[in-house]
Known about the structure:
Layout: E1 6-7, E2 34-39, E3 44-49, E4 54-60, E5 65-70, E6 76-81, E7 84-85, E8 94-95, E9 100-105, E10 110-116, E11 123-128, E12 134-139, E13 144-149, E14 155-160, E15 166-171, E16 177-182, E17 187-192, E18 197-202, E19 207-212, E20 218-223, E21 228-233, E22 238-244, E23 250-255, E24 261-266, E25 271-276, E26 281-287, E27 292-297, E28 303-308, E29 313-318, E30 323-328, E31 334-340
Antiparallel strand pairs: 1-14, 2-3, 2-31, 3-4, 5-6, 6-9, 7-8, 9-10, 11-12, 12-13, 13-14, 15-16, 16-17, 17-18, 19-20, 20-21, 21-22, 23-24, 24-25, 25-26, 27-28, 28-29, 29-30
Amino acid sequence: MRGTPFLSPAAGGAERRSPEPARESAPAPKAAGRLIVLNKSDHDLAVVDPASLRVVARVATGRGPHEVAVSPDQRRAFVANYGMYAVFREGERVDEPGNTLSVVDLERLAVVATFDLGEYRKPHGLWVSRDGRHLWVTCEAAQAVLELDTATGRIERAWRTGQEVSHMLVPLPDESRLYVSNIRSGSVSVVDRRTDSVRTIATGAGAEGIDVTPDGDEVWVTNRGANTVSVIATATDTVAASFESGGEMPIRVKFTPDGREAWISNARANELAVFDARARRRLAALPVGAMPVGIQVSPDGARIFVANTNDDRITAVDRAARRVLGTFTTGREPDGMAWVAGA
Length: 343
């Protein structure tokens, strides 16, 4: 592991598209709330009724939105305008590095602010603090992680990872540390918010997907190039275990709210796999659409949603039965998702 210096903060009208309407293929159980889906190639945010699996609203964002985070009061969504789209489509990829975040009012269903990140380009992974005051975002082109004021977008702190393609992040439950996956470096950066120190843990080629167990004891990382999963023990910040994902290109991982299961999208295998989190054992795999990436678990843990980016479809899965409930469309190249409770 190696330390990296703390950085001083830098000073710091999207096009609306109308993609084809969503189509329902099968009904899903009723649930309070709304599912938020980003469509990278339509440059917008779709609001989905999870009971009917239909899009009920759209909001234009910046170019190539990849990830979204919802404030604890459920009133705002923060969208990372990464600037790359048609990511896994041979010969179609467009890379226009962005440096903004769109702030969406979820009651008015409109962008109410755009945060300009200045020199910090290619924002991607996002997380809002429990008190709603801070927003953490990775910025790949600057090899940095930022802490923003959610009310103003002001950059309060910046940390240099010193790693290539710092992509996704998760905090510990107490928010004392942030864990950042670095794809090209095959590593995880640990940002200590108490000391502003940054440490690096080697995991495996293509470290990308990342999530923390509800109790904060472990951080799981999917290494898409190595087809493995690394388990970091947060007590020591060391790799406690590593095992095969059972499929090609594991790209995301999400724990269920009870911490019993971890769901992993094996993108090039076109499957969604489920693991016993305690035993670290693969339990089952479900065939889904082409190039599954983003995963969202409903707050009650009953359903899993996976975005099949190359099929332009979302698959809804019954967690207990481990069966597909149905698929639906939200737009072109869906990926990042979030849940809005009580909508």
